[in-house]
Amino acid sequence: MAQISDKELNAVTRRIATFSNHLLPVGSSGGSIGFCNASMNDSYHRIHGEVPSHEVEWKTACDEHGKEFTDIICEKAVDEGIAKITINRPQRRNAFRPQTIKELMRAFNDARDDSSVGVIILTGKGTKAFCSGGDQEFRKADGYADFENFGRLNVLDLQVQIRRLPKPVIAMVAGYAVGGGHVLHMVCDLTIAADNAIFGQTGPKVLTYHLLCYFCNKAHKKCPAWLIVIFLLDSVAGPNCKVGSFDAGYGSSIMSRLVGPKKAREMWFLARFYTASEAEKMGLVNAVVPLEKLEQETIKWCREILRNSPTAIRVLKSALNAVDDGHAGLQELGGNATLIFYGTEEGNEGKTAYVQRRRPDFSKFPRRP
Ligand SMILES: CC(C)(COP(=O)(O)OP(=O)(O)OC[C@H]1O[C@@H](n2cnc3c(N)ncnc32)[C@H](O)[C@@H]1OP(=O)(O)O)[C@@H](O)C(=O)NCCC(=O)NCCSC(=O)CCC(=O)c1ccccc1C(=O)O
Fold it and tell me: Domain range for residue 331?
């Protein structure tokens, strides 16, 4: 009779253990290994262990000229590939003005170029709001303007930057994510929400708030009494803000992809607000956690991502966007193919031959089926 070696016996025992673990109901403890879920007792989890849960040590980062940011806080985790970018205007529910967007774009650029960073968290200061969209005080007839005397919709550039950034961006949402702030979280790759989070678009609602600001500006800050009365009545009838705006770009198309065309129409046409658990059911967010666990859980997701291959994640992000992003999506995905090719011997042969003024020898490279 054929003898079975110790090695083979070990392999069989391991396979039976793995198989029987898969049969255990989810949540049962199933043995002495301290995983939260018995079905996680496979070789991957035995080798990699649990995702570490120790606290992050944050180090504040300046801008590229060593100057401190005014509207945002940029931090990097010590010895871990996590950058955290925080909109720091809590007194205005983290509404963004052009300066905020410019700083955000610089911080995202820095995190992109920093090869020690593998994942970026976008969040808002405090627990009341992730972001309440464009700061209406700075809205003019041609867009938003602060230190410059022309207006723009700067946030659209930031949306594109996040979409194309070759590292995952996670929105960490506590409190309101509304208007342009809601679009920002949708543009991020993942969203972890606190149980106090509120999501929604405000733009199409009645114009009282914007009208009030507009007339006050015109009247050198003096508000006509009738407008104040309308504003007060309107505030009582529906305390959510009303700004007269819409995002017919990513704010519509990405939303429709996330929640489906019918629900997207509901979100925009009715401009209702939704709780975190409603948002989770709609597919707007990846997870909802108690407010006090928000950062801990987000960090856990970051650490789990950071264990994985950065190139695989980079290519996957562009692949997941490619169909929707048309030429820009193909360019991003195609750029990744070229980037990987540059790192191969075959790619290098072409370059080396050119530099050495000789014919390249591609004969040694396989023509794969
Ligand atoms: C977020 C709220 C629901 C929070 O309500 P609450 O907790 O009761 O706080 P408040 O007392 O309302 O607010 C505290 C304080 O903050 C000020 N504030 C809040 N949000 C803004 C804002 N967006 N702009 C300016 N100021 C804001 C508020 O006035 C208070 O100030 P005090 O001095 O203390 O009184 C509620 O605050 C709320 O509903 N806010 C407005 C939300 C909203 O409608 N946002 C949408 C703005 S439009 C937008 O984001 C579009 C952005 C954009 O650039 C764009 C992109 C693509 C296409 C088009 C556009 C475009 O601009 O049109």
Answer: 310-355
Residue in this structure with the two tokens 């069989």, named with its chain if needed: 12
Same domain, 299 and 316: no
Q: What ligand 1 atom has the least distance to the C-alpha of 180?
A: 50
Question: Which of 96, 176, 241, 273 most suits a substitution to test ligand 1, by most atoms within 8 Å of the C-beta?
Answer: 241
ipTM above 0.85, yes or no: yes
Query: Could you tell me if 183 and 320 lie in one domain?
Result: no
Whether the Cβ atoms of residue 183 and residue 251 lie closer than 8 Å to each other: yes
Q: Are residues 141 and 281 in the same domain?
A: yes
Condensed to tens digits (0 to 9), the pLDDT of residues 54-113 reads 999 999 988 878 889 999 999 999 999 999 999 999 999 999 999 999 999 999 999 999
Which ligand 1 atom is at minimum distance from the Cα of 135? 24
Q: Is 185 in the same domain as 317?
A: no
- C-alpha of residue 155 to centroid of ligand 1, in Å: 15
Number of domains, the chain: 2
Q: Whose Cα sits closest to atom 46 in ligand 1? A: 179
Could you report the per-residue pLDDT of 289-340, keeping only the tens digit for each?
999 999 999 999 999 999 999 999 999 999 999 999 999 999 999 999 999 9
For residue 306, the one-letter residue type is L
Say if pTM beats, i.e. exceeds, 0.80: yes
Give yes or no for residue 38 CB within 6 A of ligand 1.
no
